[in-house]
């Protein structure tokens, strides 16, 4: 029997496959064809269909092949059509979701808006939005006014005129794909992609092959543009093939490089043949130098000082210059190309082939960066995030500007907090803060919108492994490091250097606290436990308190309080109790204080019975299972949740048995000793007493201290603790989880802790079928919907990683709004929920009012020292 699956997600994959799949690129497809209704042509379309079936089979949760074929035919062929050129397919796809709305292209308002918005969410993950915007505009004489689709409705737009805060944004990903592509089109002429193996294979197999295809695609892009420009300005009626025969040698003669016109002509032909799958990649350096000469000098020398300069440096800008109220050159090229194919160029096979192959290179790059639906878990997300920086190029120096512009779109941005990882040198920390202040000072908000407050949140990165000098890998949890001799010693030492760098920067420049507003821990949640973070957070917070006291005397008007904290927790967990434990531990051991925040915390909103039914038996490392049991017992001991007798005895017995196995049978201890050892592990003072991270064993007599030291340094204890144990969920655990959630929600509320909700991020990482399943609706219940027991939790709305999830802050509000409408929530109730979340985000921000003032930001400049 088929399991639940998102039908719109499968439809989006089918509709996008002619443009975004490697098979379509290999087939050089320009049209979808069939011999008769229900019967494909036996040629390229049938081959693409077979590849699509293989792709969907593992994602369709048991759907029959016939159902998948029906879905495919509905996506590819309008009724009665046997041949569909790809420009018709793309324009029909765009028209299904989008409509001209004056100064913007918007989501269609007719029919069922919630259903259409849910389907658009999947389409926008499968294809670049600007491709569809350009396709829609190609059906009229209008220029594309923007690169993104407007998703907010009129009433939602009015709500978003109130102050909105983006409080969870990883700034390295705060770039829309269209802008990243524009930068890449210039960067390819001067730099080489340096992809990391750990991020997975890129399109075309490896970094050199990917770079070769990007260079060929960028070269063909200029030839396509030159052809269309000649038609537009000179009125030439020739085909693309005729244009190449007549003009390619003239173009080669004009290429200013040192290898002569003959080599230039060969290089141009080779780029065309590579894109058309008729040649192997040429030497990269030769292809790069040809593209560099062909694209001409950049508009601005040196590093760009604004995103406007990045766009102006796109070689297409010499023909299609950008200005406010117009889309980027790429979107306008798409629009013109599709108009040509739909009108005079309907029979121009050479142009169609070159254009669609170039677009496939672009769409495959988009797919490389954007997380595919169904790739749940933070390990997959980390792979996608690691792909951004090699492609970001010159935009690396403008990430704050790009984030401010993107997140100001379609709402009133009152505050933006950007997250990045700190360098281990205090001067680099200082310079990073100053760079944010500089870019924020130069930022020009949209008309009639206030300047936003800005803040930097530095996050410590969790990592699974370390690399030995031999190239072999070891877990950071392995205590066998020769220098440290304890768990996470090397990891902690590196993060301690970062914490010291923050401390020193604040000591030398307390004014940095105007913008340096928070500390966080992020990345693979399960890679590092909570306890090594406790001393790091304490060190940074104490340094910020000292800086705040100094600023209170010299800059009292800033009202610069100490740095605050947020923790990524409860997003990725093997068992629900593990997620709840990791949410609570930062509170339990003092990392989070009044008014701090939690990132994601989806475990707090998961339905325990539904989770128990879906995860009946789950494997977990023995030591993590023991920690779950000890956390549960501590809650009983403190009377924070009620204990059912049978459950209590079961948990006690399992905890003792697991501990005996992990710590060996000769060690004498009881449950109280185990609970005390867990507390010691999370004590900064206890860790300091043993010299952590340079572990020095001390003679001890008490069992808790022996257990504590053995946990840190004993390789056999570590090995036994890593043994997978299979844990079954039952009704007693579900009841405990429900009680623990109820109590923990109250604990967060009592401390004014806000949960940073990231809808698209959680949709993909938590692998929800649809956004209306999101845990946020249980944390902060919607009027009229069934609410869990216990108090509500403060929830805000954020984007997390815009390019990875193809989104923006306004889009995230819109996605939630349509998800609620799709659950038959009245519009007033849905808007009220969103208004509350908007207000929560604004009130929970770490930023200072003074950071919105250019004069205050100027005080961070080195010229004022």
Q: Name the overall outline.
A: globular
Question: Residue ranges: pLDDT <50 for 5 or more in a row?
Answer: none
- Taking all Cα atoms into account, the compactness measure Rg is 29 Å
Distance between the termini: 70 Å
The number of helices is: 37
Number of separate strands:
18
SS content category? alpha/beta
- Beta-sheet strand percentage? 5-15%
Mean pLDDT across all amino acids: 93
Main β-sheet description:
8 strands, parallel
User: Looking across the biggest beta sheet, what order are the strands in?
Assistant: 7-8-9-12-13-14-17-18
* Percent helix: 40-55%
How do you describe this structure in short?
With 865 residues, the chain is of the alpha/beta class. The chain contains 37 helices and 18 strands. The strands form five sheets. It has an eight-stranded parallel beta sheet with strand order 7-8-9-12-13-14-17-18.
Key traits:
865 residues, alpha/beta, eight-stranded parallel beta sheet, three-stranded antiparallel beta sheet, 37 helices, 18 strands
Can you offer a commentary on this structure?
A hairpin with a 2-residue loop joins strand 4 (98-101) and strand 5 (104-107). Helix 10 crosses helix 12 and helix 11 runs antiparallel to helix 12 (260-275). This protein has 865 residues and is of the alpha/beta class. The strands form five sheets. An eight-stranded parallel β-sheet has the order 7-8-9-12-13-14-17-18. Strands 2-1-3 form a three-stranded antiparallel β-sheet. The model has no long low-confidence stretch (mean pLDDT 93). It is globular. The chain is built from 37 helices and 18 strands.
């Amino acid at each position: 029997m088929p399991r639940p699956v998102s039908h719109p997600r499968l439809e989006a994959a089918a509709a996008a496959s002619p443009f975004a799949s490697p098979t379509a690129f290999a087939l050089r497809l320009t049209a979808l064809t069939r011999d008769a209704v229900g019967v494909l042509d036996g040629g390229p379309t049938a081959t693409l269909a077979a590849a699509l079936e293989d792709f969907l089979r593992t994602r369709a949760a048991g759907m029959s092949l016939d159902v998948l074929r029906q879905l495919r035919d509905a996506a590819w062929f309008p009724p009665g059509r046997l041949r569909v050129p790809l420009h018709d397919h793309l324009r029909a796809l765009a028209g299904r979701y989008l409509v001209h709305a004056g100064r913007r292209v918007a989501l269609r308002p007719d029919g069922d808006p919630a259903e259409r918005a849910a389907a658009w969410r999947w389409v926008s993950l499968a294809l670049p939005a600007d491709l569809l915007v350009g396709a829609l505009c190609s059906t009229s004489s209008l220029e594309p006014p923007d690169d993104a689709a407007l998703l907010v409705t009129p009433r939602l737009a009015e709500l978003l005129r109130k102050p909105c805060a983006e409080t969870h944004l990883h700034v390295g990903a705060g770039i829309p794909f269209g802008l990243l592509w524009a930068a890449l089109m210039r960067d390819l002429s001067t730099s080489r992609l340096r992809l990391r193996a750990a991020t997975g294979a890129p399109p075309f197999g490896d970094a050199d092959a990917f770079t070769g295809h990007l260079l060929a695609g960028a070269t063909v892009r200029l030839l396509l543009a030159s052809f269309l420009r000649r038609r537009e300005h000179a009125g030439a009626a020739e085909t693309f093939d005729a244009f190449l025969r007549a003009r390619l040698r003239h173009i080669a003669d004009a290429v200013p490089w040192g290898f002569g016109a003959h080599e230039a002509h060969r290089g141009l032909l080779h780029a065309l043949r590579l894109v058309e799958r008729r040649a192997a990649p040429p030497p990269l350096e030769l292809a790069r130098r040809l593209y560099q000469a062909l694209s001409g000098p950049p508009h601005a020398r040196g590093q760009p000082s604004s995103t406007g300069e990045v766009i102006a440096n796109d070689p297409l800008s010499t023909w299609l210059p950008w200005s406010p109220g117009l889309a980027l050159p790429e979107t306008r090229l798409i629009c013109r190309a599709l108009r040509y194919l739909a009108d005079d160029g309907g029979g121009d096979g050479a142009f169609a082939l070159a254009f669609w192959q170039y677009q496939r290179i672009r769409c495959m790059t988009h797919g490389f960066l954007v997380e595919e639906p169904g790739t749940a878990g933070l390990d997959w997300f980390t792979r996608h995030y690691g792909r951004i920086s090699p492609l970001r190029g010159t935009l690396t120096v403008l990430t704050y500007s790009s984030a401010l512009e993107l997140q100001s779109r379609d709402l009133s941005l009152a505050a933006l907090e950007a997250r990045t990882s700190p360098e281990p040198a205090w001067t680099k920390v200082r310079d990073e803060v100053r760079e944010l202040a500089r870019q924020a000072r130069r930022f020009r908000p949209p008309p009639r919108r206030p300047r936003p407050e800005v803040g930097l949140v530095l996050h410590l990165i969790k990592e699974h492994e370390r690399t030995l000098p031999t190239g072999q890998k070891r877990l950071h949890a392995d205590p066998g490091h020769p220098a440290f001799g304890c768990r996470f010693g090397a990891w902690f030492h590196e993060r301690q250097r970062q914490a010291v760098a923050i401390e020193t920067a604040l000591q030398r420049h307390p004014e940095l606290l105007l913008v340096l507003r928070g500390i966080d821990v992020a990345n693979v949640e399960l890679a590092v436990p909570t306890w090594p973070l406790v001393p790091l957070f304490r060190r940074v917070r104490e340094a910020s308190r000292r800086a705040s006291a100094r600023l209170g005397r010299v800059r009292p008007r800033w009202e610069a309080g100490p740095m605050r904290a947020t923790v990524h927790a409860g997003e990725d967990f093997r068992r629900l109790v593990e997620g709840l434990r990791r949410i609570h531990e930062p509170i339990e051991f003092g990392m989070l204080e009044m008014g701090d925040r939690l990132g994601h915390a989806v475990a707090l909103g998961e339905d325990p019975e539904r989770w128990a039914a879906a995860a009946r038996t789950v494997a977990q490392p023995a030591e993590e299972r023991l920690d779950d049991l000890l956390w549960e017992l501590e809650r009983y001991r403190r009377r924070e949740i009620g204990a059912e007798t049978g459950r209590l005895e079961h948990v006690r017995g399992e905890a003792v048995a697991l501990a005996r196995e992990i710590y060996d049978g000769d060690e004498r201890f009881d449950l109280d000793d185990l609970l005390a050892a867990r507390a010691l592990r999370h004590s900064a003072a206890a860790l300091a007493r043993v010299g952590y991270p340079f572990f020095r064993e001390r003679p001890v007599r008490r069992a808790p201290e022996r257990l504590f030291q053995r946990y840190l340094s004993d390789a056999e204890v570590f090995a036994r603790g890593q043994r997978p144990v299979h844990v079954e969920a039952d009704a007693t655990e579900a009841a405990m989880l429900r009680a623990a959630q109820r109590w923990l929600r109250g604990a967060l509320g009592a401390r004014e802790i806000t949960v940073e909700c990231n809808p698209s991020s959680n949709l993909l990482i938590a692998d929800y079928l649809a956004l209306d399943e999101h845990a946020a609706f249980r944390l902060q219940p919607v009027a009229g919907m069934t609410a869990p027991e216990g108090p509500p939790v403060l929830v805000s709305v954020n984007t997390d990683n815009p390019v990875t999830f193809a989104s923006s802050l306004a889009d995230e509000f819109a996605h939630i709004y349509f998800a609620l409408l799709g659950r038959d929530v009245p519009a007033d109730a849905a808007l009220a929920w969103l208004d509350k979340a908007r207000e929560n985000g604004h009130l929970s921000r770490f930023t200072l009012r003074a950071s919105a003032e250019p004069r205050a930001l100027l005080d961070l400049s080195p010229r004022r020292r």
